[in-house]
Design a protein that fits this description.
Layout: H1 19-34, H2 36-43, E1 45-52, H3 64-70, E2 74-80, E3 85-91, H4 105-122, E4 126-132, E5 136-143, H5 146-157, H6 168-178, E6 184-189, H7 198-208, E7 210-217, H8 219-222, E8 230-234, E9 241-245, H9 246-270, E10 274-279, H10 286-301
Parallel strand pairs: 3-4, 3-6, 6-7, 7-10
Antiparallel strand pairs: 1-2, 4-5, 8-9
Length: 302
């Protein structure tokens, strides 16, 4: 079989000191500061209270309802967000434990989330996480400091957290319980086997939070290999097996895989959320993340 389950092997903490990754995180940190945080901080204003109107105030800031209630003219005061709460929602179900390259999709997803989280923490933002399959298997409220780095690394490296089906509804409920204020949610998944109605939960996330999806896909998720071979394939979620002749099945599989990818894109577009596609055969997993947020920065700046 040109794709297979392999042993999960994640040791993230030593990567903090790898010189090539340090350099990439610095570039990513600057890019995120100019994109995510600029988007949220620049346009995200938090209500701080009322104060009495003065002659130097812009009259458009007067709150007439509050003024009538207090019997004096008052204006609303706002504070700009000084940091961003970011929560990584990471799929650790069985579909992520697959690879036709040297690393599992789960390992790529973990490294992307980990290094992006470190870059955000370096900018002074608060980072939290929730790992989910059929339930939420690990979570941490957004916070700052090295404790978050080690907590995330530990959760992502624990083999006991991986496997099983996936229920986005359970994950979204957990996010709603964890986050009571404006935040950025980063949903990392292969978006395979999401189940009926998963698009509703993407919409719910996007309505309440700023949402970005990171779709991690293996080459075999996109297309079958050009081969005259025959294989026995197993569904990672149900264990069901079927005999496949590549010559007969490849056209249908490739067409359905493309349609599925387009559906994922359409779900995020309809929700007005961003989507980054990461291919596991690519050497530089930072590149699609950087490209996406540089483009987003350009759009925000007009």
């Amino acid at each position: 079989m040109p794709g297979h389950l392999t042993r999960l092997d994640l040791d993230l903490i030593p990567q903090l000191k790898a010189q090539d990754l340090i350099a990439k995180r610095r570039v990513l940190s600057r890019t995120l500061e100019g994109s995510w945080t600029a988007l949220l901080k620049g346009h995200g204003m938090e209500f701080a209270g009322f104060r009495r109107y003065t002659a130097s105030d812009d009259a458009s800031r007067i709150d007439w309802g509050a003024s009538l209630r207090s019997n004096e003219v008052v204006v609303r005061e706002f504070e700009e967000y000084r940091s961003v709460n970011v929560l990584f929602l990471i799929d650790v179900s069985s579909t992520m434990l697959f690879s036709s390259t040297r690393k599992l999709k789960a390992e790529h997803a973990a490294e992307i989330a980990f290094h992006t989280a470190v870059s955000l923490l370096d900018n002074g933002n608060a980072v939290g996480f929730a790992l989910f399959n059929e339930s939420v298997v690990a979570k941490q409220m957004p916070g700052v400091g090295t404790a978050i780095v080690y907590s995330l690394a530990s959760a992502l490296s624990s083999t006991s957290h991986y496997g099983g089906g996936k229920r986005l509804s359970v994950a979204v409920n957990a996010v709603n319980a964890m986050l009571k204020q404006r935040a950025l949610v980063v949903l990392v998944s292969d978006f395979i086997g999401m189940g009926d109605g998963w698009d509703r939960y993407v919409k719910l996330l996007a309505e309440r939070f700023d949402l970005v999806g990171i779709m991690v896909r293996d080459p075999r998720d996109w297309e079958m290999p050009d081969s005259a071979s025959q294989f026995v394939l197993e569904d990672p979620l149900t264990g069901e097996r079927m005999f496949v002749d590549v010559r007969d099945s490849k056209p249908t599989f490739d067409r359905e895989a493309k349609a599925e990818e387009e559906h994922v894109r359409s779900v995020f577009e309809a929700a007005k959320a961003g989507l980054v596609t990461v291919r596991t055969e690519e050497d530089d997993l930072f590149k699609p993340i950087l490209t996406f947020f540089r483009r987003r920065t350009a759009i925000v700046r007009g």
